[in-house]
Amino acid sequence: MKNSEQKNWFDNDKALKLYVKKLEKASKYVYRPLAKEIIKLIRKNEFEKEIKIIDIGCGPGFLLFEIKKINQEIKVIGIDPSKKMIEIAQKKAIENNIREIDLKIEYAEEISLFGGEIDVAVCQSSLSEWKNIEKGLNEIFRILKKEGFVIINDFNGEYPKWKIKWCYLIMILLAGLKSAKEHFKSKSK
Ligand SMILES: C[S@@+](CC[C@H](N)C(=O)[O-])C[C@H]1O[C@@H](n2cnc3c(N)ncnc32)[C@H](O)[C@@H]1O
């Protein structure tokens, strides 16, 4: 299946609206702590001046906004294959007065950056969505600087099954069984 043919659950209007609203409210608790950890990592490792962070599968961009709120100098890039997500991220960036943020419609498996230019690559709850994890990871290692870091935060085998079941149920209610099934295929492995 070509990337352009991939179905994206996050293009479902009803689900997307609710999802973004909930995440925006939770930003202080979910994204701010992670943003602080990333900044700490950068300070500890004394990266060069022009620091570049990419959020792969950035969704509405909340993590990048939190990073920018702490340090405006950092260059942030957000990619996501969902056109709607990127449009929301662009709108929210303006609302939050976030400048110099590069938001692009792109897949993890095909990143339009030169090699060796990224200090930190973050994948927050997005890796389990990728159709080709190996290709995506190869892309990350291609774009990272030699001393760069990758931070992956996602579902794994230790994630409580009851929590996954709850998410699944909520998705069925929001987007219907077909859409939820499609979305959870990767998470129920
Ligand atoms: C659960 S959301 C997480 C969004 C954001 N990282 C956050 O934490 O708010 C997963 C995101 O991964 C994106 N996604 C799906 N397939 C992808 C791919 N092949 N490469 C990169 N991102 C992808 C979806 O469009 C969606 O925005």
| Number of helical stretches of at least 4 residues | 6
SS elements, strand count: 5
Distance between the termini: 20 Å
Biggest beta sheet attributes: 5 strands, parallel
The small-molecule ligands in this entry are: S-adenosylmethionine
Strand order of the largest sheet: 3-2-1-4-5
CATH architect. name of the largest domain: 3-Layer(aba) Sandwich
Gross morphology is: globular
Annotated CATH homologous superfamily of the largest domain? Vaccinia Virus protein VP39
The CATH topology of the largest domain turns out to be Rossmann fold
CATH class of the largest domain: Alpha Beta
Q: Which percent range describes the beta-strand content?
A: 15-25%
Tell me roughly what share of residues is in helical segments: 40-55%
Average pLDDT: 86
CA gyration radius, whole angstroms: 16 Å
List low-confidence stretches. none
Structural class: alpha/beta
Order of helices and strands: HEHEHEEHEHH
How many structurally independent domains? 2
